[in-house]
Design goal:
The chain is an alpha/beta fold and about 190 residues long. It is an enzyme of class 2 (transferase).
């Protein structure tokens, strides 16, 4: 696993052994960040189910100003911290929260994020529940973009309240969906 672009480009992330982590592949990551390239600069990002910190670190590498890493698994949190330390990511650009993601979304009271990444555990088929929680969370604002990975066979709607899916890409058994507030799409055509 490596950082693809930006100030940490080419840096390898720490090797690990953890059956519960399925890192986002470079191919999916490339597609995702190509879609977000014009929103990345100075953005406030949340990396939910951060696992290794891969997506949040990639965002910081590409110009995001701050990332909140959310994860409840102690082993994953250790790996995330090791990666942040290895790359010497400044402490004032990040926050690590040891918490269940659904509880985090429901209790969040800060400013909305610009970009939210969510890669729920593939064994738990919970993407639908993450989207339900995101649709009523203070973390999702009128200009937020949420990218979520899900399994092909699990439930995923095209709309959750005022959040609408504007992009869907399939990568084998994985689907990358992107959601935004319906007001952000007025007068625009969706493109995949």
């Amino acid at each position: 696993m490596r950082i693809i672009a930006g100030k940490y480009k080419g840096h390898q992330l720490v090797a690990f052994k953890a059956d519960h982590i399925r890192p986002t592949t470079d191919r999916v990551k490339e597609t995702l960040f190509n879609k977000l390239q014009f929103q990345m600069e100075d953005s406030k990002v949340a990396d939910l189910f951060c696992g290794t910190g891969n997506l949040g670190i990639e965002a910081l590498s590409r110009g995001a100003s701050f990332c909140t890493f959310v994860e409840k698994n102690p082993k994953s949190l250790t790996i995330t911290r090791q990666n942040l330390e290895k790359l010497k990511v400044p402490a004032d650009q990040l926050k690590i929260i040891n918490m269940d993601v659904l509880a985090f979304l429901k209790s969040y009271e800060g400013e909305p994020f610009d970009i939210i990444f969510a890669d729920p555990p593939f064994t738990e088929k919970m993407a639908h529940f993450v989207m339900e929680a995101a649709s009523v969370s203070a973390g999702f604002g009128a200009h937020t973009v949420l990218a979520i990975e899900s399994e092909r066979k699990e439930r995923m709607e095209d709309r959750y309240g005022s959040l609408v899916r504007f992009s869907k890409k399939e990568f084998g058994d994985k689907i990358l969906s992107m959601f935004c507030h319906e007001s952000a799409l007025e007068g625009e055509q969706t493109n995949d």
